[in-house]
């Protein structure tokens, strides 16, 4: 009996052990399968991560190349800007020299100093906007010439020309010395006029004046036109001399016009006397004083251009 019992126990134990082993094998197989699935997921994730890394590396390489390209473009732009700035300064200096030479010629010919002053101020303004430290000497020379032109006592040519225009418009209103009021016809009531009334009429008919030019009082009425035209011509010549800054001819024409008024016009007339006074006043204005030169500015601009040419 005992051996059979032991055998039964052994068989039961073996069965239980086999059952346990089968259970463990199933669990192990399940775990192995789960592990393999996790490994597969990890491998997929790793592959995805590696792909993302490769993509990031590619993007980084592209960005680095673009950064290098941008740096190269920036360097090219800076070089281009320096070249443009240099060319702009060279062009500005060349234009400034031409403008200064023209203004200097105008001053030498007696033209209006105000035009030269305006040209210098425009050149100085453009150089200041250029903001180039190497142009400081040129700007200082320009400023000194500007100050000299501002201090130059230039005549007011426009005002003088307007005054001459006013006199030209009044020539026909000036009474000539030879103009004598025609005698009035005797009135039918003349015998009734008193001595006082007769004296008044005679004073209106006759005026006494010393005539330095004897033929002035003997001019025929038709010659009055030529007297007025000659005065008008003298005033026109004076105006032309004024505008051309010819001081010698200007003064000569004014003096001749004054003498003409005195010799052939009634200088006791208010208009004639006023015209002569204006002409004498205009004689006191010098229209051709020696203006300052622009030599300093021209020399400074030419020196700056020479330095830039030598540095290339």
What are the salient characteristics of this protein?
single chain, 312 residues, mainly alpha, 2 domains, 0% strand, rod-shaped
Secondary-structure blueprint:
Layout: H1 2-108, H2 113-130, H3 136-151, H4 157-170, H5 195-205, H6 224-243, H7 247-264, H8 270-283, H9 295-310
Helix pairs in contact: 1-2, 1-9, 2-3, 3-9, 4-6, 4-8, 6-7, 7-8
Quick take:
The chain is mainly α and 312 residues long. It contains 9 helices and no strands. It has 2 domains: 28-151, no CATH class; 157-180 and 194-283, no CATH class.
What does this structure look like?
This protein has helices at residues 2-108, 113-130, 136-151, 157-170, 195-205, 224-243, 247-264, 270-283, 295-310. Residues 180-194, 201-211 and 213-218 have low confidence and may be disordered. It has two domains: 28-151, no CATH class; 157-180 and 194-283, no CATH class. The chain is mainly α and 312 residues long. It is rod-shaped. Helix 1 runs antiparallel to helix 2 (113-130), helix 3 (136-151) runs antiparallel to helix 9 (295-310) and helix 4 (157-170) packs antiparallel against helix 8 (270-283).
Largest sheet: none
Oligomer: single chain
Q: Quote the distance from N terminus to C terminus.
A: 126 Å
Shape: rod-shaped
Overall SS class: mainly alpha
Helix percent band: over 70%
Q: How do the helices and strands follow one another from N- to C-terminus?
A: HHHHHHHHH
| Estimated radius of gyration | 56 Å
Number of separate strands: 0
